[in-house]
């Protein structure tokens, strides 16, 4: 979709960024995904050309298959995916965090749009680099400091109360809590080599239902006796807490700061420290049992390579240490392959 003049392309690009990155994001999560705009005298082809020009000038931060994250300057990034693969949970979850936990270090939702076969999700950019990139250069003392920062972040996250979604019937009329899973859509995601997603029309309202879902065989597969034997020993009474569910150094951005000039830290210790600036990728987040954060972090950890010591620095003072639940989950993971 070429256009005849560079001026038109620049105008289109400026209009795209103005529409996709408003100063005040739409408050309703359902308004986060916008239709592709053609106002201001620009055709859809001109918009596409302007957007492509912006992407070509950007910096590719991350890529996996058809998904690309591109920086459009120091303050804005766009996640590009196929329109059919757009995970609206990633948008609505982050919008929920922005609204209910504004103090949390997380990107701000700026907007999203679709054009043809592609979707574009715009958000603010975390300063610095990923913790994964910085990890080999951080000392043991520095890693303990990062752990302490994560402990504070995840302790704050878990303080948020699970919302009520309605009022029960009958003489008791107990308040009904929101279903487990993502904050807005109520979808539970169990991601391993395959990803299983709960039925949106049959939400999982408590841990008992979640456990039944976890041991249920996916299509065209049966549940072996060994897995059925696990269900009676799986607890149904963990606290349900706000969970990121993808805690990994690749999903954390950090920057090096002068210790003496960092108001959040006493001017003792090393001259420079690695400060967390943002927690990324909220697609898997939601209301889950208290053990979920730890177990999913352990499942994503690598026993070899530069991140082999990452499990030693998980913020277990906030998220807990759950060896039994991890062992049970590992057995389910072996079954699913």
TrEMBL record:
Residues 94-298 form the Aminoglycoside phosphotransferase domain. SUPFAM superfamilies: Protein kinase-like (PK-like). Signal peptide: none annotated. Transmembrane segments: none annotated. Pfam families: APH. This is Aminoglycoside phosphotransferase domain-containing protein. It comes from Sporothrix curviconia.
């Amino acid at each position: 979709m070429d256009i005849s003049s560079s001026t038109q392309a620049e105008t289109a690009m400026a209009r795209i960024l103005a529409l996709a990155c408003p100063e005040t994001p739409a408050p309703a999560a359902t308004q986060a995904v916008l239709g592709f705009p053609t106002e201001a005298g620009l055709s859809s082809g001109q918009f596409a050309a302007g957007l492509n020009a912006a992407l070509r000038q950007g910096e590719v931060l991350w890529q996996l298959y058809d998904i690309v994250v591109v920086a459009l300057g120091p303050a804005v990034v766009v996640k590009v995916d196929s329109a059919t693969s757009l995970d609206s949970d990633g948008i609505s979850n982050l919008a929920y965090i922005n609204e209910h936990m504004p103090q949390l270090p997380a990107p701000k939702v700026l907007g999203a749009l679709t054009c043809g076969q592609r979707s574009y999700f715009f958000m603010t950019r975390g300063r610095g680099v990923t913790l994964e990139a910085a990890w080999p250069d951080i000392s043991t003392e520095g890693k303990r400091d990062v752990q302490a920062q994560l402990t504070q972040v995840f302790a704050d996250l878990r303080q948020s109360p699970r919302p009520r979604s309605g009022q029960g019937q009958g003489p008791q009329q107990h308040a009904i809590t929101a279903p487990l899973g993502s904050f807005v859509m109520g979808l539970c995601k169990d991601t391993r080599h395959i990803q299983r997603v709960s039925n949106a029309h049959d939400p999982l309202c408590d841990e008992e239902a979640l456990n039944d879902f976890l041991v249920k065989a996916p299509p065209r597969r049966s549940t072996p006796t060994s897995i059925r034997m696990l269900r009676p020993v799986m607890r149904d009474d963990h606290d349900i807490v706000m969970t990121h569910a993808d805690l990994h150094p690749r999903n954390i951005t950090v920057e090096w700061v002068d210790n003496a000039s960092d108001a959040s830290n006493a001017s003792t210790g090393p001259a420079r420290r690695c400060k967390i600036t943002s927690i990324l990728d909220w697609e898997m987040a939601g209301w889950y049992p208290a053990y979920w954060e730890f177990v999913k972090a352990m499942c994503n950890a690598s026993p070899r390579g530069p991140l082999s010591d990452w499990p030693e620095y998980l913020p277990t003072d906030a998220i807990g240490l759950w060896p039994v639940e991890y062992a049970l989950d590992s057995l389910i993971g072996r079954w699913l392959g």
